[in-house]
Specification:
The protein is α/β, with parallel strands linked by helices. Helix content is 36%, strand content 18%. Strand 2 and strand 3 form a beta hairpin.
C-alpha cells in the first residue's frame, strides 16, 4: 500500500437521508446505520449536509444549552427535556443539518481529509462524485488506520 492509499479503502457505503425526512426518520435511520452521522441529499440527489449525533442534540435541546459553559444548575431529568422538544420529531431534518459541506471528491488526499477532521466538527466525511454521495469515511476509521500506520513505522 502506498502512502497515498492510507484511507482510500476506508470509504463505507452509507444510507442517505433526504432533506425532507423528519428528525424522527433520520434518527431511526442513523441508529440502524451503525454510523455516527449520515449525509442528507436534496430531491436531485445532491449533498446538502450532514445529520448526526451533534445535530440531533442541537435539535432536541433548546438553543441556549449550546451557549452555556456550564449547565449543572439545570434539572437533570432527560425525559422532561425530551417532552419539551418532542415536537422536533416532525421537523424536517434540513433545519438541523451541518451544512459546512466538508465533503471530498474521490481523488482526495489523506492530508486534506485529516485537515477536515481536525478543523471541522464532523464525525464523517462524505465522498462525492459530481455532488452525489458515493460513501463516507468516519473519523474513527481514519484515526484507527492512521494509528496503525504510525505504529508500523515506529
Amino acid at each position: 500500500m502506498s502512502p497515498r492509499d492510507l484511507s482510500h479503502d476506508l470509504v463505507r457505503e452509507t444510507p442517505l437521508l433526504r432533506t425532507t425526512d423528519s428528525v424522527e426518520q433520520a434518527i431511526r435511520q442513523l441508529l440502524d446505520s451503525d454510523l455516527p452521522a449520515l449525509p442528507a441529499v436534496d430531491e436531485h440527489g445532491r449533498l446538502r449536509g450532514i445529520f448526526g449525533e451533534r445535530e440531533f442534540m442541537i435539535a432536541l435541546f433548546p438553543g441556549y444549552v449550546g451557549q452555556l459553559r456550564y449547565a449543572g444548575f439545570l434539572k437533570r431529568n432527560l425525559d422532561e427535556a425530551i417532552e419539551r422538544r418532542a415536537s422536533c420529531a416532525v421537523e424536517p431534518v434540513e433545519r438541523h443539518l451541518n451544512t459546512e459541506h466538508v465533503d471530498v471528491d474521490a481523488d482526495y488526499s489523506d492530508v486534506g481529509l485529516a485537515e477536515i477532521f481536525l478543523h471541522h466538527r464532523v464525525l464523517i466525511v462524505p465522498v462525492t462524485e459530481h455532488h452525489r454521495v458515493v460513501g463516507v469515511i468516519t473519523r474513527t476509521d481514519f484515526f484507527q488506520r492512521l494509528a496503525e500506520r504510525f505504529l508500523d513505522h515506529t
